[in-house]
User: What shape does this take?
Amino acid sequence: MLTTNMVVALSLTPTEQSDPRWLTDPPVAETVHIREDDLATAQLARARLRAAHNDRGHRTDAPSVVLDVAVHVAHDARTARTELADARVHAPRTVCYIGTPSGLAGLIADIAAAHVADGVTIVPLLDTHRVELERCLLDEVLPMLHTRAAHSESTYRRTA
Assistant: This one.
């Protein structure tokens, strides 16, 4: 599911365009950050960026494409949606996830498995919850991703 090359970063604020804080090792190649309305559009953008790089005959690695994902998590999805509604926050024009830490780990794993992006930048929808979100990413989401990656590697069987 999760490749060892998947990177995860945290945006410092919901609107900040500066470099994010990497929660995993940063990409070794040049990094291109994208914001797309949905996963299919992001997947096409990644493919186009990589194809353009290859068409130009570059001798360097293709750029790592990192997708912004606006996020708000809580212990259950209903609470996450209620907190966001109470704060009257409007979702930015990018992929959004509102739900649980487990669901966020699943989304990130799916982004990797479907080659939608090489990594994600988590953009907090509520700046007041940024510290809680960072703790959640470090203590819950990233360990789930490592467990899924280890499980998928250990259950892989080569077929003829």
Summary: DSSP finds four helices and six strands in the chain.
